Amino acid sequence: MNKYTILLLFSIIMLSCKEKGQTDITQIKVSYQHSMFHNNYSVSLIKENDSETMVHAFHSPTRDHGNDSLTTKKMFRISTSEFNRIKDLVISIDEKNIRKELKRSGMDGSSTMLTFGDEINFKQYGIWSPEHHDGESLKKYMIANKEIFKLGGFNPNDIYSD
After folding, report:
1. Distances in whole angstroms, Cα of residue 50 to Cα of each of 46, 67, 81, 115, 134
2. What structural domains and CATH numbers belong to the chain?
3. Which H or E run contains 135?
4. Binning pLDDT at 50, 70 and 90, where does residue 110 land?
5. What is the rounded distance in angstroms from the CA atom of residue 137 to the CA atom of residue 95?
6. What DSSP letter does each residue of 13-81 carry, written as one string?
7. At residue 95, what are phi and psi to the nearest 5 degrees?
8. Per-residue pLDDT for 43 more than 80?
């Protein structure tokens, strides 16, 4: 067995030993990519202590990720109450129903990824063409994504099409 297989098995065992809701969420990240327009956005929220959370926001509008004149990078702090507001949105997503609500994938070349948890245990939802799905869990997923992007200083209307 290689080290990645062992790490994967260990992670699965650790996750299965945890009871639902037991992991304290200290990190939340949302990212968006569009393969045709080469737009990449990401916002990470990292709870540093009981009173502050660090926000890392990034946008690269082209394939040339090294072109700093076009890339936006921001770092700033927010209150724990603001972090908790976002955390509550993320927790409200029904993980059992989100898969049932997916009807199609890859329709327009866009995809989103929402990751949350702590340094060791986390959940991740990856959805292709998120604007083209409907259902209660997917609406909550999109609300959480848009609120995180707003918190990072981005306009969700510039990211997601209607």
Report:
1. 11, 36, 9, 21, 36
2. 21-159 (3.30.1560.10)
3. none
4. confident
5. 8
6. HHHHHSPTT-SPP-EEEEEEEETTTTEEEEEEEEE-SSSEEEEEEEEE-SS-TT-TTT-EEEEEEEEHH
7. -65, -25
8. yes
**Token couple for 86:** 């976002």
In tens, the pLDDT along 83-100 reads: 999 999 999 988 888 877
CB 134 within 8 A of CB 127: no
Q: Is the sign of the CA dihedral 35, 39, 40, 42 positive or negative?
A: negative
pLDDT, tens digit, 9 for 90 and up, residues 140-151: 998 999 999 999
Please answer whether residues 38 and 62 qualify as being in contact, where contact means their C-beta atoms are separated by less than 8 angstroms.
yes
Tokens representing 148? 């995180």
Residue whose tokens read 């067995």: 1
